[in-house]
Design goal:
This protein has 289 residues and is an alpha/beta fold. The chain is 41% helix and 15% strand. The chain has one domain: 3-Layer(aba) Sandwich (UDP-N-acetylmuramoyl-L-alanine:D-glutamate ligase), CATH 3.40.1190.20. Strands 3-2-1-4-5-6-7-8-9 form a nine-stranded mixed β-sheet, with helices on both faces.
Length: 289
């Protein structure tokens, strides 16, 4: 029963699901991503996500962060388009402001990386409005609270919890054994009509029907920020691929980059190292039509 619905992830599968880029495409047609995160303490998380979304192969990334982080964030990268939010936590006012300031409609959005929450209603409001506008969602970190489930049920949105966040979100421990975790992830994905990507030594992804198990490539990936990179990668792929495929692509490339960095740096890598390694990993899978 454990293997029913199993999708084996290898280089051939990844090559098969990578979408080609049209040689005549124009800016914006290869993906527009919105990243919402950051707080007074965690300024780096949305930056890691944003650059990861960009190097995944998208054209534009809008990064919505508290205005107190704006100057330092702009110094971090000239490649991002920043949307300053008036409060250092996500409030109803900042959610409304964000929706009014976006230059173009994003194809996908990742919410929660380093995010401070003022009121739960403000998060639910933002999720609801983005879904109404047909924006596909990745929800991570601070956004993984039980209240969001009523907003994302049957939307095929992606949630990316580690074990602790999984328990907070679903009110249930994901278990310890491989078979137990697969079963629980499958059931929760099916129950809520979403894609669950449980992060850990074993990364387990399911849309309620199919599932994949991707083993972590190195213990050096426990360093802070690698999950933020992953959320950005997934949101980038989500502009072109299905939620299940996008989750698998993000985990695969994040893992290969981590393995390569481990061979270069041992147990001394940082999440920011991934931002330079990922394009080198992904370029071998590029397609143009």
């Amino acid at each position: 029963m454990e293997n029913h619905g199993l999708v084996t992830v290898d280089r051939d599968y990844i090559k098969k699901i990578i979408k080609p880029r049209n040689i005549r495409s124009r800016k914006g047609e290869n993906g527009i991503v919105l990243i919402v995160g950051g707080s007074r303490i965690y300024h780096g998380a949305p930056l890691l996500s944003s650059i990861a979304a960009l190097v995944s192969g998208t054209d534009l990334v809008y990064t919505a962060i508290p205005k107190i982080n704006l100057v330092s964030s702009r110094m971090f990268s000239p490649d991002l388009i920043f949307i300053p939010l008036p409060d250092d936590k996500l409030t109803m006012g900042s959610s409304r402001k964000l929706l009014s300031l976006m230059p173009k409609k994003p194809h996908s959005a990742a919410i929660g990386m380093g995010l401070g929450l003022s009121k739960i209603d403000s998060l639910c409001f933002l999720i609801r409005k983005l879904l109404e506008d047909k924006t596909k969602l990745v929800l991570d970190a601070s956004s993984l609270i039980p209240d969001i489930l009523q907003e994302i049920t049957n939307t095929k949105s992606i949630v990316t919890p580690h074990a602790g966040e999984f328990k907070r979100l679903f009110g249930q421990d994901p278990g310890q054994s491989k078979s137990e975790q697969i079963g629980i992830v499958l059931r929760k994905a099916k129950e809520f009509g979403i894609v669950v990507a449980l992060k850990g030594y074993l990364n387990i992804v399911s849309d309620g029907e199919s599932f994949s198990v991707i083993e972590r490539t190195t213990p050096s990936m426990t360093v802070g920020g690698t999950g933020d990179v992953l959320s950005g990668l997934i949101s980038g792929f989500l502009t072109k691929n299905s939620p299940f495929e996008s989750s698998v692509l993000g985990l695969f490339f994040n893992g290969v980059a981590g393995y390569n960095l481990y061979n270069k740096l041992g147990l001394h890598l940082m999440a920011s190292n991934f931002l330079e390694e990922l394009p080198l990993v992904m370029k071998d899978f590029d397609k143009i039509d």
